[in-house]
From TrEMBL:
This is RNB domain-containing ribonuclease. SUPFAM superfamilies: Nucleic acid-binding proteins. It comes from Novosphingobium flavum. GO terms for biological process: mRNA catabolic process. SMART domains: RNB (SM00955). Residues 47-356 form the RNB domain. The lineage of its organism: Bacteria, Pseudomonadati, Pseudomonadota, Alphaproteobacteria, Sphingomonadales. It holds the Pfam family RNB.
Length: 461
């Protein structure tokens, strides 16, 4: 799960209840499993041989559903990122059992103790995954990155690739990755800064024990290898988006920036954490000053993620330019087809556009239907993530009933005041009248209910 890890499995009982509440699938129907085993045996016969290219993958050490591999070469002042993406569409046909099940799920759903995959393991963790144990079918994007960090799609093809190594974020060394890896990332990040893009990926939260045996929520900052790898994916997705938009087709990721009320709440949250956010500085500028290594900075980055108006998908419309505020550009999802349904169709469109062929009717039709399907899946995943964090907060505060906590009011409404604890990444509501956003107050923890994943505070004095 992106938001939280539970290495000691202290949340096991509560996670089981969350799985039941949100009907998270425990596996796949037998017919779907059988279809996956049959599809896994398909021999790629529409793929050019690119096994000589030195691709590597870079993911969490334990990951086995590997969507991307990369190789890098120089072309004068430019760098060419060869980005191999798992060819899920090779194994899944329109309307077959695998396709129908994927449309039901929309995404891979992650929890701290496991996941419910978009596709069965026979594909997602074996035949389609870009593991380093033999050739795999892939869609290879050629992304040209110029010295200013502009990314352009030079081409796309179906190809057989062979990963040289499965690298892990926690163990990778500079000498393990292709030459130019750090330079591509530096260029992309510099272009982000010039565009005014925001960086809202908070560090991962972890449930851990302190020196006295009590549980607490800590933050694990993103490693440099993760940041650089994310830059490669960003470059590929930006290049794909511009290529599709120019061709008058596509499915785009769109997001508005936080509105004025949400930004006001964030300013009071920053105040609660003792962070200096100058009045003249925009949210995007302030975010770029945060490293995310200090717990309070990490907690604020998590608050920014919660405050956003949410990203969604939108098909191409003539005369409209789809926009993603956090990226500050036109943006598409294409690089995780083993985990997101939409990416499989975006990649099919890319193959058609770069070959000068019409986009298949099934793909154009899917672009119209996918926004609703993906919104439903992401809403479910968001509810699950919120439930998991609520559960972790009850574990964190169990046994501290009666204790006072410093808090800042971030918002008010008919249901009372929303508060942010000053010393913990916990947001709650409290019955309090005549308080204003930004006002500091002291609250007492009255009740901790892990079964309902609920905390109850009351004002002190």
């Amino acid at each position: 799960m992106k938001a939280l890890r539970d290495p000691h499995r202290v949340l096991a009982g509560g996670l089981a209840a969350i799985r039941a509440q949100f009907q998270v699938p425990e596996g796949f129907p037998p017919a779907v499993l059988a279809a996956a085993e049959a599809a896994a045996g398909r021999v790629p016969d529409r793929h050019v041989d690119r096994t000589s290219l030195p691709f590597v993958t870079l993911d969490p050490v334990s990951s086995t559903d590997l969507d991307q591999a990369f190789a890098i070469e120089r072309a004068g002042a430019d760098l060419i990122l060869r980005y191999a993406i798992a060819d899920a569409a090779w194994f899944v046909d329109d309307g077959d059992r695998l396709d129908a099940e994927a449309w039901k799920r929309g995404t891979t759903t992650y929890l701290p103790d496991g996941k419910a995959g978009l596709y069965p393991p026979a594909l997602a963790e074996r035949a389609a995954s870009l593991l380093p144990d033999g050739p795999r079918p892939a869609i290879v994007l050629a992304v040209r990155v110029d010295p200013d960090g502009a990314a352009r799609l030079d081409g796309a093809e179906r190809a057989l690739v062979c990963s040289r190594a499965k690298l892990g974020y926690a163990t990778v060394r500079d000498e393990d990755v292709p030459e130019g890896f750090a330079e591509v990332a530096r260029r992309i990040e510099a272009a982000e800064d010039r565009r005014g893009a925001a960086r809202v990926d908070p560090p991962q939260q972890e449930v851990e024990r302190d020196g006295e045996g009590r549980f607490q929520l800590g933050f694990r900052p993103r490693r440099q290898a993760e940041e650089r790898n994310a830059a490669l994916s960003l470059a590929a997705n930006l290049a794909v988006a511009e290529a599709l938009r120019a061709a008058g087709t596509g499915l785009f990721r769109v997001m508005a920036r936080p509105d004025a009320r949400a930004e006001l709440r964030l300013r009071t949250t920053a105040s609660a954490f003792g962070l200096d956010w100058p009045e003249a500085m925009t949210l995007e500028q302030f975010e770029r000053t945060l490293g995310g290594t200090a717990p309070r900075e990490a907690a604020f980055m998590l608050a920014v993620r919660r405050a956003g108006q949410g990203a969604s998908y939108a098909p191409f419309r003539p005369g409209e330019r789809p926009w993603h505020a956090a990226v500050a550009a036109t943006y598409a999802h294409a690089t995780a087809p083993l985990r997101r349904l939409a990416d499989r169709y975006v990649l099919r469109a890319v193959l058609a556009v770069t070959a000068g062929q019409p986009v298949p009717a099934a793909v154009s039709d899917a672009f119209e239907r996918l926004p609703e399907v993906m919104a439903r899946a992401e809403a479910r995943d968001g509810q699950i993530e919120r439930a998991v964090i609520d559960l972790a907060e009850t574990v964190l505060l169990a046994g501290q009933e009666g204790q006072p906590f410093a808090a800042v009011v971030t918002d008010t409404g008919a249901n009372g005041a929303r508060i942010q604890l000053c010393d913990l990444p916990v947001v709650a509501r409290v019955a309090a009248g005549a308080v204003q956003p930004g006002e500091r107050m002291s609250v007492r923890l009255v009740e901790v209910d892990p079964a309902r994943r609920a905390l109850r505070f009351e004002p002190v004095g």
